[in-house]
Amino acid sequence: MKNFKAGNYINQGTYKSFQPEMINRNWKLDDMELLALLGQADRQLGRLDMYSDYIPNIDLFIRLHVVKEATKSSKIEGTKTSIEDALLAKENVSLEKKDDWIEVQNYISALNSSIEKLKELPFSSRLIKTAHKILLTGVRGTHKSPGEFRSSQNWIGGASISDAIFVPPVFTSVNDYMGDMEKFAHSTNYFFPELLKIALIHYQFETVHPFLDGNGRVGRLMIILYLVEKGILKRPVLYLSDFFERNKTLYYNNLMNVREKNDVTQWYKFFLVGVIETAKNSISTFDAILKLRNELELKIQRLGSRSKNALIIINHLFQEPVTDALSIRKWIGLSLPSVYKMIYELEGLGVITEITGGKRGKLYMFADYLNLFYDTH
Q1: How confident is the model at residue 377 (pLDDT cuts 50, 70, 90)?
Q2: Residue 197 clears pLDDT 70, i.e. is over it
Q3: Helices 325-332 and 336-348, interaxial angle, to 10°?
Q4: How far apart are CA 109 and CA 103, in angstroms?
Q5: What would the DSSP string read from start to end of 175-190?
Q6: Rounded-to-10 torsion of CA 237, 240, 241, 243
Q7: Strand, coil or helix: what is 345?
Q8: SS3 at position 222
Q9: Where in the chain are the domains?
Q10: Which of 31, 212, 283, 316 is the most buried (most CB within 10 A)?
Q11: How does the average pLDDT of the chain come out, rounded?
Q12: For the purposes of burial, counting CB atoms within 10 Å of the CB of 223, is it exposed (0-12), middle (13-18) or buried (19 or more)?
């Protein structure tokens, strides 16, 4: 976009902070390659949205996408929790992994709660603050004003502000910038494609860095909230954190190039490629899930009269792919000896695998299902 100017660096004595331009204005698109990518991204999102209409128990599958998103988004910030770790009950998480586990659980709660709140609240600062508060509850950022915009200067990279990679705008301007972003999100005065709108909002949010901590995770969470609120997706089935995490250097470089070189077009292209790739991968994952489900339904027919209980267990495993005997007992309402017999049968069929190796407190994993979420196609 030829008329784009990112902003200016302001000398603050020992450092320079970046003061971005407001974004709620009329923008002109003049790049044919960008418009072609936009068309592709719209088509793939349409396919994904239509696909989600025809998948039975879509909420079941969304849950694992949310868990994957939480682990990937947190991984960008240095949190090391795998998908199977995230699915463990708190009492089964080792002490050294507990803080990371809580951060991922908070992300899951923040996303689920925000999607629910969209029924009564628009995409807004209020919604974002509420998500941020959940995100930082009881974790390392708990003393950094959860749910409140910052009232002091922050910075990105470097041991101190004087050697920082990037210093966001002064805190006194944060509310103005967030208000401007909100107006831009809902503006009817200027037409601008919704996918490019959220791409620009995401860039601006990361540049303003309105919170003392958790900005990256909230900024990525905002993307899915925007797409759902605008009706581009009926259900939250597109998560870009995996794409951003796999292309982390490009992600940060493209954001910095907007600030340093006013090159917002390259950021748009990167974002749209992420949407296209992620939508295609999500459709492939849904296909693979349906195929796996059909294969399992055929496989458990070998169990004869026990196949009914086996199907109940499998339906629950799609929601809780890491489980134990007591949980399975609740699902099928049988005695523990009968439950262990079912577990033995399902292990024999390769449906579940014991993962602890101990004699007590055994945990079983639905590995074929989880592996679909590790496959980046």
Answers
A1: very low
A2: yes
A3: 110
A4: 10
A5: HHHHHHHHHHHH-SSS
A6: 130
A7: helix
A8: helix
A9: 7-285, 305-374
A10: 212
A11: 91
A12: buried
Alpha carbons 223 and 211: distance in angstroms, whole number: 17
Token look-up 């199977």 returns 84
C-alpha distances out from residue 59 to 53, 62, 155, 319, 367, Å: 11, 5, 38, 9, 19
**Rounded Cα gap, residues 286 and 87, in angstroms:** 20
Q: Which CATH superfamily is domain 7-285 in?
A: Fido-like domain (1.10.3290.10)
How distant, in Å, are the alpha carbons of 135, 347, 370 from that of 103?
7, 32, 20
**CATH architecture assignment, domain 305-374:** Orthogonal Bundle (1.10)
Strand order in the sheet with 353-354: 322-323, 364-365, 353-354
Q: Which two tokens stand for residue 300?
A: 């458990």
Q: What pLDDT score was predicted for residue 375?
A: 55
| Contacts for 192 with CB less than 8 Å, ≥ 6 apart | 27
Distance (Å, whole) CA 229 – CA 220: 15
Q: What is the pTM of this model?
A: 0.90
DSSP 8-state class, residue 156? B
Once rounded to an integer, what is the mean pLDDT over residues 93-98? 84
Amino acid of residue 96? E
